[in-house]
From TrEMBL:
Keywords: Signal. InterPro entries: Beta_helix, GH141_ins, PbH1, Pectin_lyas_fold, Pectin_lyase_fold/virulence. The keyword Phosphoprotein does not apply. Residues 380-507 form the Right handed beta helix domain. The keyword Signal applies. This is Right-handed parallel beta-helix repeat-containing protein.
Amino acid sequence: MFRSTRTPRSFPVPRSLRVPVLAASALLLLGGATLSTGSATAAGECSPRQFFVAPDGSDRAKGTKDSAWRTIEHARDHIRDEGLNKSSQMRCDIVVNLRAGDYPVGKTVEFDDRDSGARGHQVIYRSYDGPGKARLLGAKPVTGWQEYKDGIYTAKVDNTVYTLFEDGQRATTARYPNRKTETEWAPYLISTIPEPEKEAVRRWLWANPGELDPKWDPEILAKASVVVWSGGSWSWFTDTVPIKNVNLAEGQISLEYQTRYAMMNSRSGSRYFLQDSLLFLDQPGEYYLDKEEGRVYYKPRGDIKDAKILAPTVKTILNVAGASEDRRVQNLTFDGLALQHSDYVEWYRYAWVDEGDSGDVHKYPQYDRQIEMHRNRFGAVTVTNSKDITLTGMRISDTGYHGVYALFANQHLTVEKSLLENIGGDGIKVEGPYPGEGNTSNGHVFTNNYITNYGELVPGDAAGVELLNTGHNLVSHSLIKHSARYGVSLEVRPEVKAEDNYARENTFEYLRIEQAGLDSGDMGAFYTYGVENEEPHPIDNYVRQVVIGDVIPDASMPDSGTRGVHMDAGGCGFSFENIEVGKVTDEKYQSYQCNSVKNANWGEGFDPSKMEYDKIGVKPDFPYASEIAGAGTP
């Protein structure tokens, strides 16, 4: 049912009312996105303005069901040009129906404040034939394959790409040593140093004797890159850095850029592998791109004649961005769309190495070490300067980096009923503002989602849901599965004063986290850092009804152990109630004595009857339930 007016979501609300109001808001929004196929039948109801897009349509058509347009961009531009979403004209929602089929995305689809809904109404882009049926594909087929040698084939590509896909499965960048399986990052080599005084270096890496093949051509190897858990035994972040030059006789590799941490510490060298060279292409499912020649080499898993091999065309499929914090894009809903395939980057390091390195002046320059560098601020869906944006029933898969990335000024972003799978970075990542510079990111609702196999290209620091310096959020009723590191994380920094810290009044409830910590240490499946740094540590973040499965890392991981819950520096001011954790290699719960814990299975007297197991995880109306069943998840 569509009504002539919509009730806007409230913000903020007191703790005693916040969860019910947020839940009610999500239900109102979901109800508003449910289409009525008939005309208005009662006073106060309205019929939405509807348009149609189809893969076999034409942008010269009328945009009706029988005469559909071809592109989502044309539908957007028609609404803009005709002013249909302006306050003077918008009396009900506007719905753009995308018929089932594939929509190639050769250029990021942009939405800005000109595309907002008005007077409380939504502009809705939905998959007309059901969730996941209309697919926006950020890749195109690679054709013209010719046999190279040893089961390897080669073809020309139009643009440089940093990931590749065969029949909907990510290919592995040719690497040494070969990975154990397609869902594990190990095995690794371990760096060393020739002299103790070189322990602090971040651009030199030494291999152990015999690990680098002396028959390799150093000039060819110098075009490859290194993926490294820098920091020695600190398995916290992974860097992907191009090689500058190689001295095979000395076993020394010089890198183009600094890694996050030094390659050695007193306990260990860093785990690493080499990648991105034809020298390493030796097993099915691996590829190498010669960037100078614009030629890709691939060893298919099956017959090359039957394989559909896709190369990404964009890093971001949907970009939703208002012109400024004062001109936000708002009241936009994306309903049931499938977004598949996006690209990665040539090199990656999480954040800047030192405070102030961003070059921007901030009250807390230390936060430069906590936030993505400018070049890496993107996801398959990127959102900034927004209010009341909803992603519902989405299927986001095979991304180069984050699935959904919300940066700085965003309020009331909702991601619900969505499947995020095979994600290069984080599933959902919210980076709020720099501390003390305005509380501009809050009131988000992430509920009823299945987030699985994330951090595929950036295993270090990967989280299913990561929140940085943002508050009044609800993360609930979700299954989060298969990560080298975190399930859920909430972070600020220990230097931040209470009045400048916006990570307040967050609720995490009815969550199931499985297979976290698969390749890292000194972590928790639920993790916080620098959230409450000053006494008396008032309770203002809430965690309840959470089940965490076993948190067991790869045997090569040299760091301290894995935990179910890890409240790192400043991890105070939390209430935990009804929490269950499986097997770990350290403690199920590590924290300072500054949190409230009731009925958790790391303490005495745990009562499992208080666990609401039937409500933990996705809800019965989750639209991609068969994918969960197929994964064998309880």
